[in-house]
Amino acid sequence: MPNSPRLIATSEPRRPEGVVLVLHGGASRLGNPMVSPTQLSVVRMIPIARRVARAGRRRLAVYRLLNSTRGWDTSHTPVDDVHWAIDQLRHGFGSDLPVGLVGHSLGGRAAILAGDRPEVRSVVALNPWVYPADGEVDLAGRRVLVVHGTDDRIAAPERSAAAARLLARTADVAYVRVGGGKHAMLRRHADFDRLAATFMASTLLPDRTPRGVVARALAGETSIEI
Questions:
Q1: Most C-beta atoms within 10 A of its C-beta, which of 65, 132, 177, 214?
Q2: C-alpha dihedral over 164, 170, 173, 177, to 10 degrees?
Q3: Residue 176: what are its φ and ψ, rounded to 5°?
Q4: pTM of the model
Q5: SS3 state at 169
Q6: Span 99-116, pLDDT tens digits
Q7: Beta-carbon contacts of residue 118 (< 8 Å; ≥ 6 apart)
Q8: Helix runs in 4-77, H state only
Q9: Which range is most confident: 14-28, 29-43, 120-134?
């Protein structure tokens, strides 16, 4: 029997104004084992989901997606799991609520590649493991924030920067370099968490006024170093 993806609720307000999906990374394993809620790549996204929920102030529904398998199986990728999750949320909340995607590593890649769903309004890719050609997806009308640590030795910042340049042909894209940040986002974790949460709240809730780096990104600044 194949593994199934799972949704874990972080915040479920009665009348949400938007929905955020938080997507984990994690390398492949032999035999396509089921994703464990305790694996480090999954656990790392818990504080990010909570930070998004706090920024949403009970106006955003926030869910973490546990993929059907670890890594990136070409016959069934994390993008398929994101589509499944959005369909589930549409069934529960209707099709009118805007959706935001926040992903780390391969989850960042899935967020970008699934970002062309009509429900998606904004995408945050944190240290995304991508190929430059992933930026060829048409994300017209979406806001995209790519955040990458300069000391990431697992997902190359150069590749995400190249993908961001391609994305910028159709979407509003800002690329933030986090000095000294590494792949697991433990060093300077507060910066990664805050950027994801503030960007989601600012793009999904129209009356929110962003500040700091996110304000610069939404004002049209395309390349930012922090």
A1: 65
A2: 10
A3: -115, 125
A4: 0.95
A5: coil
A6: 999 999 999 999 999 999
A7: none
A8: 40-43, 45-56
A9: 120-134
